[in-house]
Amino acid sequence: MNFRKKEMKTTHANELKRNLQLKDLIMLGIGAIIGTGIFVITGVPDANHAGPALTLSFILAAVVVGLSGLCFAEFSARIPVIGGPYAYMYVVFGEIAAWFTGWFLICEFLLAVSSVASGWSGYMQGFLGSWGIHLPKALTAGYNAENGTYIDLIAALVIVFITFWVSQEAKKALRLNNAMVWVKFFIIILFIAVGIFYIKPNNWTPFMPNGVGSVFRGSSLVFFAFLGFDSVAMAAEEVKNPQKDVPKGIIGSIGIATILYIIVTLISTGVVPFAKLQVSDPMAFVMRYAGHGFLGSVISVGAILTLLTVTISMMYSLARLLYAISKDGLLPKQMQKIDQKTRTPKNATFVAGGFALFFAAAFPLQILAELTNIAALVYLMMVSGGILKLRKEFGKPEKGQFAVPLVPVLPIFSVLACIFLIAQFSLTTYIVFAVTLLLGFAIYFFYGYRNSEMNKK
After folding, report:
1. CB 391 within 8 A of CB 404
2. Above 60 in pLDDT, residue 238?
3. Model pLDDT for residues 319-342, shown as the tens digit of each residue
4. Is the bond preceding 405 in cis, omega lying within 30 degrees of 0?
5. d(CA 221, CA 215)
6. In this structure, how many other beta carbons lie within 10 angstroms of the beta carbon of residue 358?
7. Alpha-carbon distance 239 to 70, whole Å?
8. Partners of 152 in beta bridges
9. Residue 4 carries which DSSP code?
10. How far apart are CA 186 and CA 192, in angstroms?
11. What transmembrane ranges does the database entry give (predicted)?
12. How far apart are the C-alpha atoms of 149 and 139, rounded to whole Å?
């Protein structure tokens, strides 16, 4: 019974308006991808692992993400139903695989919301610090007794605000998020245009200070920077020509983001010795290091605005995911409740906000990023493997539908690449992930299995 499946719906009653084109998909992908990855994570791996060779880490992560994106594209063309990977797995592997894919997605979105809130806190503290305003150290970051930090107060407050905002003004929040893509471009172009004149090539020597292993380790961390590309695949029902434009949108947004990440990383490590980049607001720090404190403040304000909207988008997605899974009975039905005034799943939003509040306030950014990555890599591995099962049971895509090339070679390579990156994580990450996995088992077997809508069939 654990492998009970939903039927594959090759024809889907689409109630959404198909008005998105390729340019819209690329903007959507870039808007979702470029957030904490470029404004925050680019600093931490530099100082701890890869150094200037972090550019190679980004390329490696982009290859892994690109392979997964191809598999997403075929699924979105062949199974055009709401729910994304959760729905795909329900069709090809059955309920238990669908639940764990949904569970890993919940973990990814939840931890990503918390990570971005933590990164937002870092930029806000840097901005306040430039005006001589400083919080007590105990309230500046997640729990780390050695460093004297216990709770990230600003991250906690921003989660409370975002939860309230998404429960009331979700539609406006998502419109604002799209508008902020242009603000992101302005900030990045400003950083590149100024920073390029302060590069000292000596700072790139040695290019790979900690060896090849550090590049692999760095790629497992910066993988976080590409999360959000799946939003392109999930928009398939609103695209005029999804079979052609969805894969182009995925690869296009990943490609543009990769180029921007590489340029920003080269400038950052060229201006500032990599050992000094262990900061939570690296782009602003680079400007201040170069003697442009005002530009550093401008970048901080821009990052504060854009990171806030990314967090809103992720919270929105997380709440809808909880709502979708609860409709199948695998999570409590209370999360299905729709607020009659705002027409939003308010209960699901508050549940998402409560858990995000705990993680954002209590856990350091790097731990959050690692846990987000391992959860995402596991479900991406399942999606890539799912292509093999999809082809075996339902054959090749119809004419006009996107097809992953070189099956089974590319899906197998995608699975192996995900496993390789998973092998780079720390023991602490494995332990916490194992606890997360056990919790997922407990929720399914003690609640989801008994209350599943499939039982009624």
Report:
1. no
2. yes
3. 878 888 888 889 998 888 877 776
4. no
5. 10
6. 14
7. 17
8. 140
9. -
10. 10
11. 25-44, 56-75, 87-113, 149-167, 179-199, 211-229, 250-274, 294-326, 347-365, 371-390, 402-423, 429-447
12. 6
Closest CA to 234 of 381, 86, 345, 126: 86
The CATH number for 285's domain is 1.20.1740.10
* 67 within some domain: yes
Token pair belonging to 282: 């690296």
Helix (H, G, I), strand (E, B) or coil at 16: coil
Q: What are residue 93's phi and psi, to 5 degrees? A: -115, -25
Q: Is residue 64 part of a domain?
A: yes
| Phi, psi (rounded to 5 degrees) for 152 | -95, 95
- For the segment 85-96, the average pLDDT, to the nearest whole number, is 88
Could you tell me which residue, 192 or 130, shows the higher pLDDT?
Answer: 192
Is 1 part of any domain? no
The letter for the amino acid at 368 is: L
Location of structure tokens 């496993």: 419
pLDDT at 15: 46
Rounded distance between C-alpha atoms, residue 243 and residue 261, angstroms? 28
Nearest Cα neighbor of 39 from 310, 228, 242 is 310
Q: What is the pLDDT of residue 190?
A: 93
Grade residue 376 by pLDDT with cuts at 50, 70 and 90: confident
- DSSP 8-state code for residue 140: B
Domain that includes residue 291, residue range: 22-451
Position 13 in a domain: no
Which region holds residue 329: left if phi is over 0, alpha if psi is between -120 and 50, else beta? left
Q: What are phi and psi of 144, to 5 degrees?
A: -155, 90
- Give the three-class secondary structure for 20: strand
**Mean pLDDT, to the nearest integer, of 194-221?**
88
Does the structure show a pLDDT above 50 at 281? yes
Q: Quick one: pLDDT band at residue 82, thresholds 50, 70, 90?
A: low
Most confident listed range (29-43, 60-74, 104-118, 270-284):
60-74
Q: 56 with 137: CB under 8 angstroms?
A: no
Contacts of 66 (CB under 8 A, 6+ apart): 250, 251, 254
20: which strand partners?
Answer: 239
**pLDDT range class, residue 3, cuts 50, 70, 90:** low
**What value does the mean pLDDT take over residues 173-181?**
68
Name the domain count of the chain. 1
Q: Cα(428)–Cα(136) distance, rounded to whole angstroms?
A: 28
DSSP 356-422: HHHHHHHS-HHHHHHHHHHHHHHHHHHHHHHHHHHHHHH-SPPTTS---SSTTHHHHHHHHHHHHHH
Residue 121 has, within 13 A of its CA and on its CB side, a CA count of: 27
